[in-house]
Amino acid sequence: MSPEMDAAAAPKNRPSQSPAPSSATLKRLKNHIGVLSTTALKYLDQQLPWYRSLAPNERAALGLIAQKGISTFVSWYEDPSSTPSWVVTDVFGAAPTELTRSISLQKALGLLRTIVEVVESQVPDIAPEAEQAALREAVLRYSREVAFAAADVYARAAETRGAWDSRLEAHVVDAVLHGEAHDSLASRIAAIGWKSQKNIRILVGTTPSSNAATFVSALRRMAIRYSRDSLVGVLGDRSVLMLSDTKFDEADLSRLTRFFGPGPVVYSPLAPTVKEMHQAAAAAVAGFSAAKAWPQAPNPIGADDLWPERACNGDELARTALIEQVYRPLQQASNGLAETLSSYLALGHSLEGTARELFVHANTVRYRLKRVSEVTGWDPLVPRDAFVLQTALLFGRLHESNL
């Protein structure tokens, strides 16, 4: 292109510049700051029902933001070529951080929209007709900057709050696993916003190799559908999920297993209150450590279903449970249930062989084995249950021999 054509095209490609405001318009605008602020607060009270329902200190904070925004606009309009990067500090600097908790971003933008409408309605009284379009354009440009600034403030507050909540969750999980005193634990749980502190279920599984933040948010979204409150803690290669006031049976826990990494997911017995959380968590963690000893175990698997593996892995809670809930009820029962069960297991689960060993009829053996199931809750005719019963006999005899 020729130099003449370049010169002709240049003005068309250059961004249009708004004319500088006249000194008379700036003077009237400065004189109207008080009127604009008063009118804006009146409009907020009339147009926004949620504003009227706020506490006095919150209304005062919002009013201060509105007044500061108007006065800052006047300063910026005096030099429209500058970029209002200082909007965040000047407009929102006086607002308390807690305001982002009680006022949503949508409400903040609604407040901004109302203030813009107020300023635009006063334009005819401030500027002559030749400057009104430029003033309205400046109002819109400034409101855009304030809107972005508000979004930034809320995003930073949410990020800070999320990071703080994650640290609190990690502390609560650590406190539960280490058996912190009940009063202190209850205070920590209340601090993270748990509304219900009963019927607590704890799940332990592997942490997926994918992004941990995505895993935690996805798990929490699913968990909240089936419990009143949820808490997630990532402890290296394993993750802990705590649910309070669960709304589903144990079978439905399988809906949560897909969020964990490969491997077993072990759930604890139900803890009635916060006081029993540590014991439930200890059972789930011990079950997770011992679950690999049962490769065919269903997933998820209850910690109580892993008593034999946990006991062999050194878990005293499991050993005590086998002795107190299986071995002793058999010893205290009549009709020689323990002797019949021991013979039945030793003779390869043979009813006829057990009958010959004990000099009784085979139907008697069947009846006694049925009684074993009623007394202990474990059926000796089921291979897995028979293994649990045999382990209980083993640890029960060892316990008695060491007394």
**Rg computed from alpha carbons, rounded to a whole number of angstroms:** 36 Å
Order of helices and strands: HHHHHHHHHHEHEEHEEHEHHHHHH
* Strand runs, count: 6
Q: What fraction, in percent, of the residue positions are helical?
A: 55-70%
Spans of 5+ residues with little confidence (pLDDT < 50)? 1-16
The total number of structural domains is 3
Mind summarizing the main beta sheet?
A: 6 strands, mixed
Alpha-carbon distance between the two ends: 106 Å
- Work out the strand percent: 5-15%
Structural class determined from secondary elements: alpha+beta
User: Count the helices. How many?
Assistant: 19
- Globally, the shape reads rod-shaped
| Average pLDDT taken over every residue | 79
List keywords for this structure.
3 domains, 6-stranded mixed sheet, Alpha-Beta Plaits, 403 residues, Arc Repressor Mutant, subunit A, 19 helices, alpha+beta, 6 strands
